[in-house]
Amino acid sequence: MKRVFLPFLVGILFLILQTTLLSSFPIQRIRPDILLIFTLYLAFSSSSIFGGMLAFFMGYLMDLFSGNVMGFYTFSRPLVFFAAQFFKERFYLEGFYSRFLFAFTYSMLEGFLIFILMNAFHSTPLRNLYPLLLTFLLPQSFFTALVTPPLFFLFQQGSLFLFRQPEKGITEKV
Amino acid sequence: MRVRDLFLFRRYHLLIFIALLLLFALVLMSLRAKQRKGVEFFDSLLIEICSPFQKGSTFAIKTVRGTFQRYVFLVNLEEENRILKQKVALLEEENHRIIEMKLANERMRQLLKFREKNFASMIGAEVIGHDPSSWFKSATIDKGERDGVKKGMAVISPAGVIGQILKTAPHYATVLLLTDYNSAIDSIVQRTRAKAIVGGKGENRCEMKYLLRAEEAAVGDVVVTSGLGGNFPKGLMVGEIKKVDRRGHGVFQYAELVPSVDFTQLEEVFVIMEPLPPAPPQEEKGKKGKKTKR
User: How many domains does chain A have?
Assistant: First the structure.
């Protein structure tokens, strides 16, 4: 039960942090997307079905609290999750740089996907948003990637602490 | 045959699950586009569950920030005399509280004056959260359907236009900010009365759409609401033109404006409750955008 509800609660907590604490940064471009980082971590630590549903739920929450009326994140977050899960064993992802690159790539890819969806669903071409790819997406992806290695470490320590079962001899990460 | 089907299902169950999940997301997109009631109910339920935490978090952040501003930066200055330090800290704290109260009082008086002067039926709301994504621009406020807030209502502040109500829950609502690329507000240039639609440019900038090339608009011109959209009263400050470009071809010219409201400092806003009386019927002229104004 704990394994099901805790990730949901952590997802909600991160959403709240993202909409309050991280939004109070004076420079919006350096605001890391901690919900994306959590989604990427889920790709490593949970099963496809449960993680996929959680990624879907977090995408849904993102859409709910944003000015995004269509629900792009409900679509993009599970996609990011499954893509990350598909590629997780093809790369060595233990060091700082590999995790940084991993998160940076997915943040950029999701940004492009959202951008394509926005253009596809909008009645007129959104030419004025093109500069944002450089001025906003790039710095934001960089800072998201920068925060990823320490957050991954914290998630690992947290799950070790919460889900260890010494009486059964289980102490590995979940 | 059935056994074979079952085998195939087991073999491809993950792929089927992924396809179903993504398909469901696409169906949701379609339902949202059609504004179906079921989705809206589920949305408002989730907003209602999450927003109190958001409100609590905003309160905690404000309190912690206030504490830091009041105490932490003063600690090093008060090492020499402990008693004096305590007295100074107490006085400082009291002073800060008085200043804070004075500022809040002034702000409230200004808001009240603005309210009395302009519109009788407005409701004040506090901003409790911002958009989790940087692609979109919205804010969550602590007033909802129970307070009479409805979709499409105008949200303003003494500094000018803020946006429109996008989603509602019983006690909370989401405001689509003026700077969002989906935003569209009927406006006029105050000096020349040139009409245009003000839309967001993503960051803290807006652009004027459908501003005729023949119309005059210059840098520094003030843009106000036209009152034609139905949601916003006439004459509310939208922003100031910062750039005009007539180099391109076509019927329209391009103008960029800076909103009069600083969206990074949003704390209190007003929701205009009473919709304006419907505009007298006019002949529809050519331009009929696909996009509906929310």
Answer: 1
CATH of the domain at A77: 1.10.1760
Residue A173, domain member (yes or no): no
Delimit the domains of chain B by residue range. Answer: 184-265
* Contact indicator for B269, B149 with CB cutoff of 8 Å: no
pTM of the model: 0.74
Contact B291 A70 (CB under 8 A): no
Which amino acid type is present at position B150?
A: K
Q: Chain A residues with CB inside 8 Å of B21's CB? A: 52-53, 56, 78
Q: Which of B129, B107, B136, B172 is nearest to A24 (CA)?
A: B129
B184-265 classified as CATH 2.40.10.350: yes
Query: Does ipTM top 0.85?
Result: no
Q: What is the DSSP letter of B276?
A: P
The pLDDT-based confidence of B277 (bands split at 50, 70, 90) is low
Q: Which of B274, B271, B273 is nearest to B156 (CA)?
A: B271
Interface test with B, best of A19, A42, A112, A141 (most B CBs within 10 A): A19
